[in-house]
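<context>
A single protein, sequence plus fold
<entry> Chain with its tokenised backbone below
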Amino acid sequence: MAKQLNNYAPEEGNVKRPGVHAKTKTSSNKTSKNYKKKYRGQGK
């Protein structure tokens, strides 16, 4: 039986993360548990 070579290497900029649906740890949705204001400061 011939030995198979695996030459597949994913591009660094396009890495798939199975099971992880968010690229950032914060959310712009106010009701989300990971909600973080875009601009923290007085009156914003």
Observations:
- The mean pLDDT is 77.
- The two ends are 67 Å apart (CA to CA).
